[in-house]
Amino acid sequence: MDNYQLSRDRAQQYFLNFDQEKLIRTWNLRHDADTLFVAFFCREYAVCRKTGCVHRDDGTEAGFEEVLSIFDLLCHEGKNKTLSGRWAPVNSLDGMGATAGVGTAFHTGISAIFDKDPVAFCAACEALGGIPVKMGDIGYQFPVFGPLSVILKFYHSDEDFPASCTLLWDANTLHFLFYETTFYIAGFLLHTIAETIRRGL
C-alpha cells in the first residue's frame, strides 16, 4: 500500500468520526440512508456513509487529490466559513505564517499544454464549470465546494517568458480548508484540464 492510498484511507476514517446529520444540515447535502452526495468542481460525488469510500458520478473511484480535498472541505472545523470577497495567491491568504509557501506559479509543463491550443484550453475550462473572468490573458473562475471558488489566471508565452498560470483564492480560504489542501485542489484542477484537452473533450 503506497502513501497516497494510506492518506486516502485515513481521510475516509476521519470522515466516519463526524456527525453526518450535522454535515448534511451544514452543507444542505442530498443524501439517502447509504450515501452523501457532494458537489466538487460542478461534479457530484457519492460518499458511502458506512465506509467513507468516494466515487465519481460515472461510478469510478475518486483519486487521492479528490478524496482529501472533499473530506477537508466537508469536515473542516474552526473559524466561521465566510468569504472575504478579496482574491489572493495561495501564499498571501489570511492566516498564513511568514515562512509559508513556495511560490504562486504552477506547473510549467501543464501551462505549455494550455499554451499550445488556447481554444481547447478554454473549452476544457468551461466543461469543468469555469466561468470566464477578465484576469491574465485567459481567466476562469471555478466553483470548488459550497461558496468557495478559485480563479485560474493564465498567461501565454512570449519571446521572453514561458506560459504560466496562477491560482487565486478568496483571502479567507483557510477558514474552509487546510493550507496543504489548496495544493491537492490545484493539482486536481490543472491535471484535469490537461487530461480533458488530451482527450479532446
Report the strand count.
Answer: 10
Report the CATH topology name of the largest domain.
TATA-Binding Protein
- The mean pLDDT is 90
Principal-axis shape: globular
Structural class: alpha+beta
| Largest sheet features | 6 strands, antiparallel
User: Can you tell me the number of structural domains?
Assistant: 2
User: What's the architecture of the largest domain in CATH terms?
Assistant: 2-Layer Sandwich
Structure description:
By secondary structure, the chain is an alpha+beta fold. It folds into 2 domains: 3-75, no CATH class; 87-199, TATA-Binding Protein (2-Layer Sandwich). 37% of the residues lie in helices and 23% in strands. The strands form 2 sheets. Strands 5, 6, 7, 8, 9 and 10 form a 6-stranded antiparallel beta sheet that branches. It has a 4-stranded antiparallel beta sheet with strand order 1-2-3-4, covered by helices on one side. Strand 8 (138-145) and strand 9 (148-155) form a beta hairpin. Helix 1 runs parallel beside helix 3 (64-75), helix 3 packs across helix 6 (179-199) and helix 5 (118-127) packs across helix 6 (179-199). The longest helix is centred in the last third of the chain and has 21 residues, at 179-199. The model is unreliable at 98-105 (pLDDT under 50).
